[in-house]
Amino acid sequence: MIGVNEIIKFAEELMKLKDIKRTGWILKKVSDPESVADHTFSLTFLSYLFAKKMGLNENKAMKMALVHDINEILTGDIATRADEKNQTMDNATKERIENENTKKILELLPVDLKAELNEIWDEYNGLKSEEAKLVYNLDKLDYSIQVMFYKKNKRSTLGEDFGEEHLKTADQRINMPEIRKIFEQIKKTMREKN
Q: 85-122: buried (b, 16+ CB within 10 Å) or exposed (e) per residue?
């Protein structure tokens, strides 16, 4: 049986992701930037599509996508930068805080759901499966596609260099050949338009 009060409390917390704008886009002066919930939606859809095409467990991949930024209910969106020294906190501290806050948010769920999603989170966070590696890579591809969309639709006042740091960050992290191929096409498309 679903714990009604637990689900309502969890859902109320979850709604906060709709109001948290992605920090990277705010820093790049994007008009009407996407929220964390917007990003989670597109990442979940990409995770389903790619996992299905690659013969992976699409349900597990979608769950990972859904939980991957849930900690931002408490932390807000802490931008990862190409050069760690330009971040508001180092990667190790960020990872520790994200892990702690993911666990806190999942505590709101009924025991069985909490256990399942904690396991999913640990698998994703530790990149312990092909699904985890896929979702991690797609997270970077998603914001690369978003850069292309914003640039194409002139949603930033920063001009030709808009998105270069996002692409550089993604370039450092995307390592799955299937995702890398698409990322290389995005880079090529964006640089041809400059």
A: eeeeeeeeebeeebeebbeebbebbeeebbeebbebbe
First and final C-alpha spacing in the chain: 56
**Letter string b/e over residues 8-31, b meaning 16 or more CB atoms within 10 A of that residue's CB:** eebeeebebbeebbbbbbeebebe
pLDDT digit string, tens, across residues 26-78: 888 888 899 999 999 999 999 999 999 999 999 999 999 999 999 999 988 77
Distance (Å, whole) CA 124 – CA 131: 8
CB distance 13 to 32 below 8 Å: no
User: For the whole prediction, is pTM greater than 0.85?
Assistant: yes
Question: pLDDT of 161-186, one tens digit each?
Answer: 777 888 888 999 999 999 999 999 99
Residue type, 162: F
Homologous superfamily of the 4-192 domain (CATH): Hypothetical protein af1432 (1.10.3210.10)
Q: Rounded distance, CA 25 to CA 162, Å?
A: 10
H or E element at residue 177: helix 177-192
